[in-house]
Write a structure and sequence with these properties.
By secondary structure, the protein is α/β, with parallel strands linked by helices. The protein has a single domain, classed as Rossmann fold (3-Layer(aba) Sandwich). It contains seven helices and 17 strands. Helix 2 runs parallel beside helix 3. It starts with 5 loop residues before the first strand and ends with a strand. The structure holds S-adenosylmethionine. The site of S-adenosylmethionine (SAM) has 22 residues, from strand 10 and strand 13.
Length: about 300
């Protein structure tokens, strides 16, 4: 039974810093670049003044010309713009929807998964001895790269061609073996159903479904409506040796506790605890800023 929530923050991500937050914005340092972008949750006052906020090289203006706003560049960005975490390197780009191509808070989950896999004992040899991981709604491949680097065979599923292309660039940038990732441009729900029919098994599954999204053929994804079935299908894909099942949620109207309760019911026949909480970033004054929710099961 879940009776407390965890506040997770990434550790050892020296290329990322949340400098300040407030007045519905965040000020962040990614490598050598300081950016300023909207954060509707940051409803509190800022702790730093214009001498700090004025250092931004790029500002995302929600009233700018794009579909949801646009970046304004005050200084030119490095080409390529890169950051490193735990020996893995990532290519950043100012995306049209205020993103950089990486969610820094996810580094806490990456470290958790790698730690859980350390105790994996496989009976196979060669390819079969490497943990098989399923990464759903996998975006630009942050977790895919970290897990492939840790020696896993990753199946990376995303419905967006540009996201898969970016993930591929990140994979190449890290000089990882080609066979370490299977790239699937597919609808996550359909892909999982097919894997269940084929009797596929995975030693770890992670997913980062959006609140609302579309498969490659336009099929609609809604977090609260579709997650329960997807989770129960995923549980049947877990191998007897499986180490974890991790679910993230951004901008959903679900709470961490609701997500934890759902996951706990889905893995009821598995031994091992379920925990839930918020993925946070700590700003330079020590204030925690919540970015999303998670629930995770691990084998005991
Ligand atoms: C919140 S992002 C994932 C962030 C990523 N996990 C990370 O930490 O960097 C959600 C992703 O889900 C993808 N997506 C949306 N609907 C989908 C669907 N039905 N099937 C597969 N992927 C989908 C989007 O293309 C997007 O890349």
């Amino acid at each position: 039974m879940i009776n407390n929530l965890i506040l997770e923050t990434p550790q050892g991500f020296s290329d990322f810093e949340l400098l300040d937050s407030g007045a519905s914005e965040r000020l962040e340092r990614w490598g050598g670049v300081i950016i300023r972008r909207p954060d509707p949750q940051a409803i509190w006052p800022r702790r730093c003044g214009s001498e700090v906020w004025g250092k931004a090289s790029a500002v995302f203006d929600p009233a700018g010309k794009g579909e949801r706003g646009a970046w304004k560049f005050l200084k030119s960005l490095p080409q390529p713009w890169t950051v490193e975490f735990s020996g893995a390197k990532f290519l950043l780009k100012p995306s049209p929807f205020k993103h950089t191509g990486l969610f820094a808070e996810q580094a806490a989950n990456w470290a958790w998964m790698v730690e859980k896999l350390k105790s994996t004992r496989s009976t196979g040899s060669g390819q079969n001895s490497r943990p098989k991981i399923l990464n759903l709604f996998a975006y630009t491949g942050g977790a895919t790269v970290i897990l492939a680097k840790a020696g896993c065979l990753v199946t990376h599923v995303d419905a967006s061609k540009p996201a898969i292309t970016w993930a591929n660039e990140n994979h190449k940038f890290n000089s990882l073996p080609q066979d370490s990732v299977r790239w699937m441009l597919d609808d996550a729900v359909k892909f999982v159903k097919r894997e269940v029919r084929r009797g596929a098994k995975y030693d770890g599954i992670l997913m980062d479904p959006p609140a609302f999204g579309h498969g490659p053929t336009g099929k609609v994804w809604k977090f609260n409506e579709h997650l329960p079935d997807l989770l129960s299908d995923c549980v049947s894909l877990l191998s007897s040796n499986a180490r974890f099942l991790l679910v993230n949620g951004y901008a959903t109207n679900s709470s961490a506790l609701a997500l934890g309760n759902l996951l706990e019911a889905a893995v009821v026949r598995r031994s091992g605890p379920v925990e839930a909480g918020e993925l946070c970033l700590k700003d330079s004054s020590g204030r925690l800023v919540s970015t999303g929710i998670f629930a995770r099961w691990r084998t005991s």
